[in-house]
């Protein structure tokens, strides 16, 4: 399946380019019943491609079409992009693999498709929430992954986090009572929704990525308040590698987890675009 999408005017508006230079899009079925959309530059194409991973159960358009706008913006700046549905999500078929390496197999299939379609040779993985967890795991082991963009990704509560989190709440009697009540009827924990490695493994994985030269952009929002509330927490939890020059960090406390407001999505897209051009611009594209 290869359906050309002719909507040059819309693409140009989002990416702030003239229509004749707007990116082109095509829909593909690949791998074990996966479906995705390739967005390719109309001019010179970087050898660094970007894969946008599902955020939770959200399909390949991303929350509030974030992935659509991000793909078109990056393609307008020369980066080919594939946004796709992992097995069992969106337009893709139910998973045929039940083994633990299914995530890596699907991302490898996505890399092959983007390479065939655009000539990309290295890749940047980008994901929000569970997508960030997938990106972290695969970036740690795959030699063709040169970068990862982790939105509300892995971090670990530290003593400093608990002080900042608990002390203000102790002064609010209502919150104290609600906490006591919640302990009697405990709901799902953070670990029930996320796929984080053990802390020691996460430190080792990040250190390995830094040693290999992988570039990383961490972005945390106010939606991660239950496990992240200060910039210094990243290195306190993940070790000295989090302070390496190729590790960038943004902490936007006033933003919500899914970038609900359009102005917040615009800031995020602009930050990712600037980071991609800085880390994988013309001098780094081959």
UniProtKB/TrEMBL annotation:
This is Alpha/beta fold hydrolase. It comes from Lysobacter stagni. Keywords: Hydrolase. Residues 50-182 form the AB hydrolase-1 domain. The keyword Hydrolase applies. GO terms for molecular function: hydrolase activity. SUPFAM superfamilies: alpha/beta-Hydrolases (SSF53474). Gene3D superfamilies: alpha/beta hydrolase (3.40.50.1820). It comes from the Bacteria.
């Amino acid at each position: 399946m290869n359906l050309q999408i002719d909507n040059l005017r819309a693409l140009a508006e989002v990416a702030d380019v003239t229509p004749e230079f707007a990116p082109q899009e095509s829909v593909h079925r690949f791998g074990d019943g996966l479906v995705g959309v390739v967005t390719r530059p109309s001019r010179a194409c970087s050898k660094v491609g970007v894969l946008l991973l599902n955020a939770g159960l959200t399909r390949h358009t991303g929350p509030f079409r974030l992935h659509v706008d991000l793909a078109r913006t990056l393609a307008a700046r020369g980066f080919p992009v594939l946004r796709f549905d992992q097995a069992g999500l969106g337009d893709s078929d139910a998973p045929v693999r039940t083994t633990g390496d299914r995530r890596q197999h699907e991302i490898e299939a996505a890399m092959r498709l983007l390479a065939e379609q655009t000539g990309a040779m290295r890749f940047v993985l980008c994901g929000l929430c569970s997508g960030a967890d997938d990106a972290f795991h695969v970036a740690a082991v795959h030699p063709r992954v040169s970068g990862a963009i982790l939105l509300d990704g892995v971090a670990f509560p530290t003593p400093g986090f608990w002080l900042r989190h608990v002390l203000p709440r102790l002064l609010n009697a209502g919150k104290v009572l609600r906490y006591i009540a919640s302990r009697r009827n405990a709901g799902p924990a953070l670990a029930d929704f996320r796929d984080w490695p053990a802390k020691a493994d996460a430190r080792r994985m990040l250190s390995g990525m830094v040693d290999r030269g992988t570039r990383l952009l961490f972005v945390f929002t106010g939606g991660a308040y239950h496990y992240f509330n200060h910039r210094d927490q990243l290195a306190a939890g993940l070790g000295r590698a989090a302070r390496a020059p190729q590790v960038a960090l943004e902490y936007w406390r006033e933003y919500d987890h899914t970038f609900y407001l359009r102005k917040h999505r615009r800031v995020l897209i602009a930050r990712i675009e600037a980071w991609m051009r800085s880390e994988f611009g013309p001098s780094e594209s081959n």
